[in-house]
Specification:
Elements lengths: L1 H11 L2 H12 L2 H5 L3 H4 L3 H7 L32 H5 L1 H6 L32 H43 L1 H5 L2 H8 L9 H12 L4 H5 L1 H16 L6 H5 L2 H17 L5 H16 L2
């Protein structure tokens, strides 16, 4: 019985998982995977290139929702001829008589072998050839950029997935390092490249909060994402728009309920985690 109790305790003891999580974070593995230097350097032009399919230049890509009409030449329009021209004198008077075709010129005699000089060397490339070479060079450059962005996305998604697994394996350890983990994944919430993966990691991290804040992790994560989008300046979202959302009011009420239930202030790490939502409410006019 004692052996079974010891085995059961070792199996349910979160200390090994917490130690593994601490070793993973302390070894800067997550920081290396979630380094945002290359990600923050991406521009809107890089995004357009990444979203353009292979074999097409980003400048040739038609934006979504734009209709490009097709021009079809009507080849069935003909002038009145034959009996239509004889029956309708209006057409006959307006049209001019067809001039006879000029006689074909005789082909020039072939030059003699003695008079034939050396063959001319290759001339300069015409404009169409130069334009095609320039297009192929741009296609190769854009294809290389897409490959580099795909590698960047794979690295960031791997780091975010690893962070989520660390939090799920050791929630108590994660609750003590909320600020450190938040710095790694929260800025990526507004990313067009890995925003969905960052949302999953932040949602796993939000479950470590006490009371109604942890049970409403999805609502809190959605509010944090709205704040991240408002801070980035993209999407036309302001702090006033964020503060007017019902989800933000739900998070504020949950924070008040948790504080009243504890009878004291929240830990500094938990309060810092929720503070961006409160800051959006305070900064809204």
């Amino acid at each position: 019985m004692k052996k079974r109790a010891v085995f059961r305790k070792a199996r349910h003891d979160p200390a090994p998982a917490a130690a593994a999580a601490a070793a993973l974070y302390g070894g800067s593995v997550l920081r290396g995977l979630l380094s945002r230097g290359e990600h923050d350097a991406l521009s809107e032009a890089d995004r357009e290139v990444f979203e353009t399919p292979e074999g097409v230049l980003s400048s040739e890509r038609v934006p979504a929702g734009v209709y490009v009409p097709e021009v079809v030449a009507n080849r069935n329009v003909r002038k009145p001829r034959g009996r239509f021209k004889m029956d309708n004198r209006a057409f006959a008077e307006e049209e001019e008589e067809d001039e006879p075709a000029p006689p074909a010129k005789a082909p020039p005699p072939p030059p003699s072998r003695a008079a034939a000089g050396p063959k001319a060397g290759p001339g300069k490339k015409d404009a169409s050839q130069r334009q095609e070479e320039h297009r192929r060079a741009k296609l190769a450059a854009e294809s290389e950029l897409r490959a580099r962005i795909r590698l960047l996305r794979a690295r960031l998604e791997l780091g975010l997935h690893a962070l989520g697994r660390v939090v799920e394996a050791a929630p108590r350890h994660a609750s003590q390092h909320l600020e450190s983990y938040q710095e790694l994944c929260l800025p990526l919430m507004s990313s067009w490249l890995v925003g969905e993966a960052a949302f999953d990691s932040v949602r796993a991290l939000s479950t470590c909060l006490p009371g109604r804040l942890g049970s409403g992790a999805t609502t809190l994560t959605a509010c944090l994402r709205l704040v991240a989008v408002a801070q980035s300046g993209r999407g036309g979202l302001s702090y006033r728009d964020v503060a007017s959302r019902p989800a933000v009011a739900s998070v504020v009420h949950a924070l008040a309920a948790v504080t009243a239930g504890c009878g004291q202030q929240l830990p500094s790490s938990s309060y810092s985690y929720v503070f961006p939502v409160l800051q959006a409410v305070l900064l809204s006019p």
